[in-house]
Design brief:
2 domains, five-stranded parallel beta sheet, 317 residues, 29% helix, alpha/beta, 9 helices, Rossmann fold
Length: 317
């Protein structure tokens, strides 16, 4: 019987770093199983084994992605029952947190979100109130569901790689029948940059970019970073809403967050304040962003950012 169950949803040809972090964290809780959706390639199966997974559960249907999260939550509940896990770990994305909430109801389990670490006894460490406080929480239920923020665990493979056993789990037909079906999808353009929610470096722009994200994109490409934005920038149509960082956007926790032309209102802080190092560039010396920045540069981003990009390229070359 597994102590921890990790949910990995349709990763494609390779596991994301956030999934490796979940597997590493789960291994500290005991024997690890994985509830997996999508195509399980030989390379992915080998990686799961290398990170300590002993069993991989697969759904009885390959149509879960044709519906919203209801069937996935039902499948994960069935996998948790089959594995006997006392801890279920998911990513902290909006969909992950919705599945966690539904799963908590199905398993009568405590649900802890925004987790940055879990002790072997099930005590979770959280970053709350826009990163202003660190707290600890522990559920009193037999099963606990954790949604874990990316970039808070250093991925590390197990000492001995194993070939995980594969088991099929029946997805309740009524859960599929009662769920909303996705009628259409639009493919997101591929930028070549890392996913915003799990990027180790984020370069974000706000109202101060005045519609021109070019310098920030050049800096991001030089650093291998993701590009983010404030709500003001996305509402203005300068960049897609999927780049929005903040209370109503994506919550990020990178090693380095570069803020350019963003005032730092509390809604924006809520999405990035747990970043390890924050560098702010703004012409306004009274901008609230400087209150949380580790390093602040008072200046024109259109002069500062290109200089930083040129210096980085010079040192890399």
């Amino acid at each position: 019987m597994a102590n921890a169950l990790v949910f990995i949803d349709n990763p494609g040809a390779a596991l994301k770093k956030s999934s490796l972090e979940l597997l590493t964290l789960a291994r500290s809780l005991g024997e690890t199983a994985v509830a997996f959706t999508g195509e399980l390639t030989d390379d992915v199966a080998a990686t799961l084994g290398a990170y300590g997974a002993t069993t991989v559960y697969r759904p009885s249907t390959d149509e879960l992605d044709k519906y919203l999260v209801g069937p996935k939550a039902a499948y994960l509940a069935a996998a948790a029952g089959a594995s006997g896990a006392t801890a279920v770990l998911l990513d902290n994305s909006p969909e992950g947190k919705e599945i966690a909430g539904r799963l908590g109801i199905k398993l009568n389990a405590g649900v802890i979100t925004d987790v940055v670490g879990v002790e072997p006894d099930g005590t979770a460490h959280k970053s709350v109130l826009a990163g202003s406080y660190n707290t600890s929480a522990k559920a009193t239920t037999p099963v606990t569901v954790f949604s874990v923020k990316a970039n808070n665990v250093e991925p590390s493979p197990a000492g001995e790689a194993k070939v995980p056993a594969t088991t099929t789990v029946e997805v309740p037909a009524d859960a599929v029948a009662a769920s909303a079906r996705i009628s259409a999808r639009a493919e997101k353009p591929v930028s070549g940059r890392p996913d915003l929610s799990e990027a180790r470096i984020v370069v974000a722009g706000g109202r101060g970019v005045d519609g021109d994200f070019g310098p920030l994109e050049e800096l991001a490409d030089a650093l291998g970073a993701a590009v983010g934005a404030s709500r003001a920038a996305t509402d203005a149509g300068w960049i897609g809403h999927d780049a929005q960082v903040g209370q109503t956007g994506v919550t990020v926790s990178p090693q380095l967050y570069i803020s350019a032309g963003i005032s730092g209102a509390i809604q924006q802080k809520a999405g990035m304040q747990t970043s390890k190092v924050i560098v702010a560039v703004n012409k306004d010396a009274e901008s609230p962003v400087f209150e949380i920045a580790d390093y602040g540069i008072i200046g024109d981003l259109f002069k500062v950012i290109p200089q930083a990009t040129a210096e980085i390229k010079k040192r890399k070359g």
